[in-house]
Batch of 4 targets.
Target 1
Amino acid sequence: MSNSNSNKKLTKIKTGIFSRGLTLAKLTAQAGAGFATQKVTGLVKSKAAQDISWQSFIMNQAKNFSTEVGELKGSLMKAGQMLSVYGEYFFPPEVNAVLKTLQNESPPLGWEQMQAILKKEWTPEQWAQLEIETEPLASASMGQVHRAKIKATQEIVIVKIQYPGVDQAIESDLKALKKFLVMIEALPKNLDLDPLMQEMKEMLSQEMDYTREVELMELYRSHLNSDSRYIVPKVFPQFCTKKVIVLSFERGLRADDPIIQSLSQERRNKIAQNFLDLYFKELFEWHLIQTDPHLGNYRLRMDPMGHDKIVLFDFGATKKFDAEFMNNYASMIRGAILKSPDFEEASFKLGFIRKEDDEKLIQIFRDFCFQTVEPFGPSAYDWKNTDLPKRITQIAIRIIKEFPLRTPPREIVFLDRKTAGVFIFLSVLGAKFEAGPMIMKYLVKDSKK
């Protein structure tokens, strides 16, 4: 969630599938008409003029699309964020820029509307027990957060409230997003986006089930209960419903806060190592992964003795992965680091490459994966001053251009999203440390199962 410092507030959002559909249909029609005009006028322009005109067109679409979708709230905004990670591999850069705008701050919904939701979800007795601040702490695509105080105990809590109607519009929103991308010819012709859309539909449905999120939060608390490096907020079940979650208020700073940035290299490295170690636990031990790892979902709590803690928020996007898939995925990673035969065997099992594939394609994919695991080499890695993301993207684009495009395993979009988020987190911290021994501790153990 983004901090709600903007003065702009929405008085309502379109909750009905019909009204949302009309807005999205208008957006798509406008984009289609503009795209058709671009194609016609481009015929009489030089290549340089075409490029400038196309970029201008895309920037206008980005502004219109992000403004409308930000005010609609809901799954369309979230799906666009997900696709912006995945889209690095097959969308034109200009099109992916449209999707990335959906990660910008979304205006909050006014207190009158949020109060109405709470009064539907709570009994008068529950309502009377809390004193709630009307100004939101943060707002996002699915809901917003308000700080409150439990009158009887004076405990400070946060109240996470889901926007009205967003859970009913997932399927129609995803169809609208796909139609928009088709209209501006953003999708490669031989790409089957349906498996990915189905995966996003399931994940978005889960994210809007707050009862499930509470269960997952408690599961994480049980996993990390004895590990002092992490804090999972306490749940107050007496106030939780399918649309509302009440948690302990946990203070802390974002990783990009100037105070964090001014810490010593050693201290920032330690925070980064703890963050990476948590990722490895999720990936290789629990097979349970919080797949939305943007900076806003974590806080860092400073300790005078240097025993800093990572506060974990937002478990709605947590996904349980099949053990067989994850074991093969671990084998592929281990094989890529060690450059062993395990790599190709696991890649075949996962469906990334096939026995009949051209050797040139297999070699490029091998190079792609070997570069991906570069941070886990034999020396300290500089997570900030590296061009690795750029190099990986360039290889992915080459694969798309030179070989028939196939949809990767549907689980990969969320693993890639997590991996990208972890990389960004460590980059923001300016971390420099040797990560190879950290991951091999898990991979060697995994290989003995």
Target 2
Amino acid sequence: MSTESPPTVSPVLVLLIGVLAISTGAIIVRLADAPPLVVAAYRCSLAALALLPLAWHRSRDELRRLSPRDWLLACVSGFFLSLHFATWISSLDYTTVASSVLLVNTNPIWVGLLTPFLSDDRISRLTALGILLSVVGGIVIGAGDFRVGGQALLGDGLALLGAITVTLYIFIGRRLRRHVSLLSYVVLCYGAAALFLLAFAIGSGQALTGYSPQTYFWMAMLALIPQLIGHSSYNWALGWFSASFIAVTLLGEPIGSTILAYFILNEAVTRPTLIGGALILAGIYLAARGELRPSAARKAVS
């Protein structure tokens, strides 16, 4: 653990920015007219390339000092991130934004189940109640949107697989961010994810070039907004909050994504969405109260 003083920027504010940024992801994916693996590969590749000059300037000494185990864990984290994007982005071809984002954000369930085995974090009663309320809210949001059978069922399964893989990505990030700076961690993780996704795309015979200027623009926006701003905000916060709390805050994404889908993709906002959104916000509030108790304060490498 670092002995560094508390951050000058509120971790809660950073998480809020992360929620808003990540909420744009599903919409931008729909606007990018390219195969899912190609979209995912560009997302991580452009993000990693943007970080490389900064990492070389500020973090090359730290990167040299990292143990082989840290390098391996960062690459494994990138592998799970690549699987998350490959499965979740693919799910959007088969089911609605609401169903996909709901299922991919069931990670609090998996985090809660795996925390005793994969982490030394402990879930407070308030955080546990927040997880429960948030999951119920997510179920309410998607209750009227689930479709059984055919392509929709395939999409739901891919989104659920995306939730499990992002859970493992969060756990590894939580472990590394206790002693590895944000910049060093994300450049390794995003870079590894990019290499895996490029291999997946090439191996499946998907072309990496030949798309419209609009598609390249949206893939660049995907790298900038939900990846560099959104995921990096969460990865920074992993140094200060438990994996359980980070997973609960990710449940704010269905609210933002559903609102954006209404205005941009003309997907209706239903009464269950409003009720479920209120439950999710209540869950995030309770989880924050449980996480922010003075006895739970944590320090990290910035």
Target 3
Amino acid sequence: MSEIGVKVQGLGKKYHVGLAKSGDFRENFRRKWKHLLGDYVPAEDFWALRDVSFELEEGKAVGIIGKNGAGKSTLLKILSKITEPTEGRVEIIGRVSSLLEVGTGFHPELTGRENIYLNGTILGMSRNEVRSKFDEIVDFSGIEDFLDTPVKRYSSGMSVRLAFSVAAHLEPEVMIIDEVLAVGDADFQKKCIGKMGEVTSSGRTIIFVSHNMGAVQSLCDSGILLADGKIQEMGSVQDCVNKYFENNFLHSNEVPLLERKDREGNGQVKVKNVEVYVNGKKNNAIKTGAEVTFRFGLHHESGFRFKNLKFHVGFNGGFNERLSWCSTDLMDENYSFEQGVDFVDLTIKKFPMNQGRYSLTLYLKTNGAISDWIKEAFLFDVEAGDFYNMARVVDPRQAKVLFDYQMKLGKAED
């Protein structure tokens, strides 16, 4: 059984919002003067965190997610001992390395080389220990040409490269990483994700905060979802991400689609509802690999003549990022009808999306004009299924969309 590396009990952090007494004479004088003028606003208590408790096993990676203002940064600052909690306690076994913002732990006047040794000393490592890792740190960071340049002359990307490399290679027992990795380029981010995987496999603990749900899912074993300073969901990373997406979708299926006001178009034809058929039967339980039909009911005046009907369906993940789309523009047919049309069916023979929560964006054009355009028109969940008929499912952290493919071995002819 793994040992507990991080233990948090009843953690809370309270701030005073408004004008409060400080140790600065000019600020206190200004506060007193505003009070005499009747403009004084008394300080109010604001709990950035309240009653937060969890345990992390050694060698695990946990993703902490939540909207801006949820309390993520406050929690990391407490874990990093940058600020003290108002209540509760934190127990961490071993050394902690924190990467919370660009240049964390660096002295701007010192060179990159000197800062590597400085960080090692802060972590309690001897000079010989740092020297044994020095070449790996420099090689991973890719800043060898600027190693003897003061850090204050580094770009934000260079600072992040060096800071992460130091944090990952000097072998702390616990690594705490904030959204700072977003500063780096895509190739470096990929290197970082790979390195963090090595860190956890070596028995060290990672606490990772990011708005990049793909990175969180690929790296982390478990998740913690914060909302308004409290834990809203804790457990598998997939459950936390699904809940996070659910919270961030602007709409739900509870509002009748025809009553939605957040749409564009002339309204001559509107999508009024969405029905789902799985393997020929009406059923909202979509499963990866099943035959799925989305039936889009249409609302229009009686006898409306459809000419050059164009219908687009966008499949979106969290934050409305487009994953794929289906469109009549890709079909070599002229969709024109003299009589009314009641619905449009979209059938996908082998549904390729893996376990997760998704939404549909709908775009309808008739007679050369936009009739209806509505984002997040329909939310749906997908259950993991045996897409490849191999008696197993593909981990959604590895792939959100699956391909129906073949692989063959070949040998060049002599």
Target 4
Amino acid sequence: MKIGIIGCGNMAEAIVRGLLKNGLYSHLEIIATDVRPERLKEMTANCKIETTENNQEAIERVDVVILAVKPQVMHGVLEEIKPKIKESHLIISIAAGVRLERIETILPKARLIRVMPNTPGLIGCGISAFSSGKAVTKEDEETASRIFSALGDVVKVEEKLMDAVCALSGSGPAYIFLIIESLIAAGVKMGLSYDLARRLVLVTVEGSAKLVKETGKHPAELRDNVTSPGGTTAAALYVMEEEGLRGIIQKAVLASEKRANELK
């Protein structure tokens, strides 16, 4: 099955690189389009795939269409490609905040899947959640899962939960980056070199996530294992709780979910 990717942003390139790296598709089975000629040249040079500025031309030659455009231009792109969409096409959208029902108003008979990947997919360590439209088959879901497995883990969720997914895992890397940045800054303030502080923080964050994943234990239990009564960790956690860090994080994620809902 040939794949056409409409839009050549970072995530689109990550998908292409993942598919090629994992041997799921060949260079000859992927076509990418974009309105920026310079970006198409980069994709051709970086990924050795065919590119074109003509969306309709690309769709006529593929079986799977991945919509990797910004939400604000989605309507125009859908109207443009509508005449070329057939019942045989599987349409996959990775546009944040664009619900399936919105796409279905323009492509009512299309087989639609909505996917929310995240940026760690750029190195094959991401997670993508997908929800399916009314006409989607089990085979379609398997195709989507296979494609996005090139970016990391894949999970299926109900469409009504996609805003929550967007807020938690879609935007989640930004929250973690801010925490990492803050920890490094604290290390530098205490006299560590930037490089040493960065190394200490990155290995600590990575190891902590792996510990939660591989032990299956609740994070609170693992936190208690590190926290001695009256010790240094307890002193730090006391400040975090007093300043409301737990509540701030939860309020931030809920604000992200609310904004995702507003984008519909």
